[in-house]
Design a protein that fits this description.
- The protein has 18 helices and ten strands.
- Helices cover about 65% and strands about 10% of the residues.
- The protein is elongated and about 120 Å long.
- The structure holds adenosine-5'-triphosphate.
- Adenosine-5'-triphosphate binds next to helix 9.
Length: about 550
C-alpha cells in the first residue's frame, strides 16, 4: 500500500514533464487529454490510498494507546501507598495526559514520518535522476535548516518542564475547587480560590509566551532557510533551461519534486519535536514505571490463615515504632508491644492524633514499621504479600470511598458475579434493607462518586456491608459507626456481634457502647500504649481509660 502510494506520487512529475514537453510543445491535444485523464486517475488513486492509510494509523494508534495507558494504570494501581502520599492528584492526571504525547509519537508521528521518509527517498532518487547538483544544494540547505531547528528544540526542553509543573498545579487547583465546593461556599473561599487559579494561569501564560517565542524563532529561521533553498534551486534549474541543459517541463518537474520533498522534511522536524516531548514525558512516566511495586519479591500466599494449627495469637506487634517521613520526622508510634488474640475483639482508644489509624495502616501493610516487628499468624509481615493480608481483612476506614456505581457493586466490589445470598446477609447486618427497598432500582440504584447523594450514616452502612459481604477472618473498623444515630448503631452493633464470632476484630472507636464489650482494650497516647485490659479492669484502674471514658466516652452508658 505504502509502495503503491509512493509510486503514484512518483509518477506525477513525469506526467507533468510529458504534458509540457510532448503534449503542449508538440501541440498534441490527444496526448494532452490522455495524460490529464491519467493524472486524474492517479489523483483518485492517491486519495483512496490516503483514506486507507488514515484508517491504518487510527487502528494501530488506538491499539498502541490502549496498551500504553493500560500498562501505566496496571503499574500505578500496584504501587505502594507511600508513592501516593507524596503526590497531588493534578500531578497524576498530568502524567496520564503525558501518556498521550508518547502514544501520539509512537502512532501518528512515527508512522507519518516513516511514510514521509519513504516518499522523501523516492523523490530523492527522482531528483538525482534529473540533476545531481540541484540535489546537492537541496541537501546542504535542508541539513542547515534541520540543525537550526534542533538547536531551538533543545532550548524548549527546560520550558516544557516548567509548563508541566504549572499544568499540574492548574489541574490540582480545579480538582480542589470541585471537591471542596461545600467548604468553599460555607467559608466564602470562592474569591481566594479563583484568584489562586488566576495566578497559576498567569504563570502558565508566562511559560507559554517563552515557548511561543522559542517556537517562532525556530519556525521563522527554518522557513527563511527553506525559501532561500527554493530560490537557489529554481535559479539553478532556470539557468540550466537558459543554457539548454534542461527542458521547461523538466524545470516544472524539478520545482514540483522540491515542493514535494519539503513536506517530509517538515514532518521530520515535527517528528523530532514530538520525539523530544515523548522522551520528556517518558522520563516523568518512568518515575511511575520504575518505582518498585508492592512486595515485588514476594510470591503470593493466599492462605495466611491456617485454621488447623493456628496459635491463639493472631497478630503480634513487638517494639514497633513508626515515622511517616523519614528519620527527621516525629515518631507517630513508639515502642508498641501489643498482642491481638485470635477470634476476639480488640478495641483501640485514644485521643485524636494518638496514632490509632496509623497502627491499623501498619497492620494492613500500607507502610512498614520504622523499627520493630509485626507478626501475622506467626509470620513476619514483611514475608507476607500485602494483597494476601488485605484479602483476608474486612476494613472500614474513616475516609472509606463510595464508587460511582450501583449499590450492589459498591458492596460486592471485585466479585464479577454477585452472590445474592451474601448480598442480602450483608445488607441485613448493615441495616440497609429498608433504605435499599425504598430506592427506585433497589440494589441496582446508582450512587454518585464518593457517595454523593448519600447521608454520612448511609455511606458508613454501605462500607460495613462491603466488609461483611467479603466475610474475611480479620475485621478492622476505624470509626465505622461514628456517623450513625444511636438506634441504627445499636441494631448494627447487635447484628455484628453474631458476625464477629470466631473472627479477629480490631475496632477503633470513641463511643463507649462500641468499646466496652471488647475482650481487650488498648489505650494509646501520643503514639504509646499507656494501658491495656478489658473495660472492667481499666475502669477500676482509674487511669487514662477512666479519664477518656469520663470525658469522651460517656461513662456509665
Ligand atoms: N500521611 C501522613 N503523613 C504524615 N503524618 C501523618 C500522616 N497521616 C497521619 N499523620 C500524623 O500521624 C499522627 C497520628 O495520626 P492518626 O491518623 O494515626 O491518629 P488517630 O489516632 O487515628 O486520630 P483520629 O482519632 O483523629 O483519627 C498525627 O499526628 C498525624 O498528623
Amino acid at each position: 500500500m505504502l509502495l503503491l502510494g509512493s509510486c503514484i506520487t512518483l509518477m506525477f512529475p513525469f506526467l507533468t514533464q510529458k504534458l509540457i514537453d510532448e503534449g503542449v510543445n508538440a501541440k498534441n491535444l490527444n496526448l494532452i487529454t490522455i495524460l490529464l485523464l491519467a493524472q486524474t486517475t492517479l489523483y483518485l488513486g492517491s486519495i483512496f490510498i490516503e483514506i486507507i492509510r488514515n484508517w491504518l494509523v487510527l487502528y494501530i494508534g488506538s491499539k498502541l494507546s490502549i496498551s500504553i495507558i493500560s500498562d501505566f494504570l496496571k503499574k500505578l494501581l500496584y504501587l505502594p501507598f507511600v508513592f501516593f502520599d507524596s503526590r497531588m492528584i493534578g500531578d497524576f492526571s498530568q502524567r496520564i495526559q503525558d501518556n498521550e504525547r508518547i502514544e501520539q509519537f509512537l502512532t501518528s508521528q512515527s508512522l507519518l514520518t516513516f511514510f514521509s521518509m519513504f516518499t522523501f527517498s523516492v523523490f530523492f532518487g527522482v531528483l538525482w535522476f534529473y540533476d545531481f547538483k540541484i540535489l546537492l544544494v537541496y541537501l546542504a540547505l535542508t541539513s542547515i535548516s534541520i540543525v537550526w531547528s534542533l538547536y531551538w528544540l533543545r532550548k524548549k526542553k527546560i520550558l516544557d518542564y516548567f509548563k508541566f509543573q504549572e499544568k499540574s498545579r492548574n489541574q490540582e487547583s480545579i480538582y480542589e475547587m470541585i471537591n471542596g465546593i461545600t467548604e468553599i461556599k460555607l467559608n466564602q473561599f470562592e474569591d481566594y480560590k479563583r484568584q489562586e487559579w488566576e495566578s497559576i494561569q498567569q504563570k502558565l501564560f508566562a511559560v507559554n509566551t517563552r515557548i511561543l517565542k522559542n517556537d517562532q524563532i525556530q519556525t521563522s529561521g527554518y522557513e527563511l532557510i527553506n525559501q532561500i533553498k527554493n530560490i537557489i534551486v529554481t535559479f539553478l534549474a532556470a539557468t540550466f533551461v537558459v543554457h539548454g541543459k534542461m527542458t521547461l517541463g523538466e524545470l516544472l518537474s524539478v520545482s514540483y519534486i522540491v515542493g514535494q520533498m519539503n513536506a517530509p522534511v517538515n514532518q521530520l522536524i515535527v517528528f523530532f519535536r514530538s520525539l523530544q516531548d515523548a522522551t520528556l514525558s517518558l522520563e516523568r512516566l518512568n518515575e511511575v514505571q520504575e518505582h518498585p511495586v508492592e512486595d515485588e519479591k514476594l510470591s503470593e500466599n493466599k492462605n495466611i490463615i491456617h485454621k488447623e494449627n493456628s496459635s491463639e495469637l493472631a497478630i503480634q506487634l513487638s517494639n514497633v515504632s513508626f515515622q511517616y517521613e523519614g528519620p527527621m520526622s516525629p515518631y507517630v508510634l513508639e515502642d508498641i508491644n501489643v498482642s491481638i488474640p485470635r477470634g476476639k475483639i480488640t478495641a483501640i482508644v485514644g485521643a485524636s492524633g494518638s496514632g490509632k489509624t496509623t497502627l491499623l495502616k501498619l497492620l494492613l501493610k500500607f507502610y512498614n514499621p520504622t523499627k520493630g516487628e509485626i507478626h501475622f499468624e506467626g509470620k513476619k509481615i514483611e514475608e507476607i504479600p500485602a494483597i494476601n493480608i488485605r484479602e483476608n481483612c474486612g476494613v472500614v476506614m474513616q475516609d472509606g470511598f463510595i464508587f460511582s456505581d450501583s449499590i450492589e457493586r459498591n458492596i460486592a466490589t471485585k466479585d464479577l458475579v454477585i452472590d445474592e445470598q451474601k448480598l442480602r446477609v450483608a445488607t441485613k447486618i448493615a441495616n440497609l434493607e429498608n433504605f435499599i427497598e425504598n430506592l427506585p432500582l433497589q440494589y441496582k440504584t446508582k450512587i454518585g462518586s464518593s457517595g454523593n447523594g448519600l447521608s454520612g450514616g448511609q455511606k458508613q452502612r454501605i462500607l460495613i456491608a462491603r466488609s461483611v459481604y467479603k466475610n474475611p477472618h480479620f475485621i478492622f473498623f476505624d470509626e465505622a459507626t461514628s456517623a450513625l444515630d444511636s438506634e441504627n448503631e445499636k441494631t448494627i452493633h447487635d447484628n455484628l456481634q453474631e458476625f464477629f464470632k470466631g473472627k479477629t476484630v480490631i475496632i477503633i472507636a470513641h463511643r463507649l457502647s462500641t468499646v466496652k464489650n471488647a475482650d481487650q482494650i488498648i489505650v494509646l497516647r501520643n503514639g504509646k500504649v499507656t494501658e491495656q485490659g478489658n473495660h472492667k479492669e481499666l475502669v477500676e484502674k482509674n487511669g487514662e481509660y477512666f479519664n477518656l471514658v469520663k470525658n469522651q466516652l460517656e461513662l456509665g452508658n
